[in-house]
Amino acid sequence: MRRLLLAALATCGIALATLGVASADGFFHRLHVDSLVSDGITDYHSGDYQASLGKLNDALSLSTDNIDALYDRGLVYYALGNYSAAADDFRHCLKLNPDFVPALFNLGVTEIALNELDDAKTIFQQIIVAHPSSVRAHFDMGLSNYMAGQTDKAVDQFAVASLLHPQYVQAHYDKALAEYRTGNLVAADVDTNAALKLNSDYAKAYFLRGAIRLRQGDDAAAKTAFETAAKLATDPVLKSLCAQIIAQLGA
Known about the structure:
By secondary structure, the chain is mainly α. It folds into three domains: 31-97, Serine Threonine Protein Phosphatase 5, Tetratricopeptide repeat (Alpha Horseshoe), CATH 1.25.40.10; 115-200, Serine Threonine Protein Phosphatase 5, Tetratricopeptide repeat (Alpha Horseshoe), CATH 1.25.40; 201-251, no CATH class. The chain has 13 helices and no strands. Helix 8 packs antiparallel against helix 9 and helix 9 (169-182) runs parallel beside helix 11. The chain is elongated and about 95 Å long. The N and C termini lie far apart (112 Å). 37% of the residues are buried.
């Protein structure tokens, strides 16, 4: 009996030791994957997207369904302009966790970049239903509508975004731009002024003001606005466009 007990204890000890080794291996494996993901995120935030991509690919080669690595690689692919790959990673995240809202939101943004506007609108509507106070969801729904040529709907969504976040300069500007496209110059002027009150150095808003003044027949005020836009513009294309319009308006 004693020999049987000793044999059983020895066998149990071997099993526990084996289990301990296996647990340790699993722990260090997860630690290595987490370290690669963490380093990849650091590289992403420093702007070294290729280094970030390499580390996240290494992490995923060790843990195929690591949702953090997939999500972060999607962000890296988006930053690199590889929108199809980004969309694939965000979709993979959502298969693993259908309630992963950041992945859903970024999939919507990526669908805009891919010009898949109906898919983008479906995603942002889903987010709005679940999170009606999401400023970015309303804003990006407006952007999707604007790019699809549905300017009236875009105005409505930008209006909600600006009401939810009155300091959101881009929402005021994009609302003004959509209103300009609909021909509602009075409303466009009001929202352009709102954007400029929040950011007095906003070159695009001065350019839009110039475009509004031109359509209103006030060439002198338009020229002043385009001159201000040209002074503030850091985008060489916008600066050149202002110079061309100013030259056409003359003295």
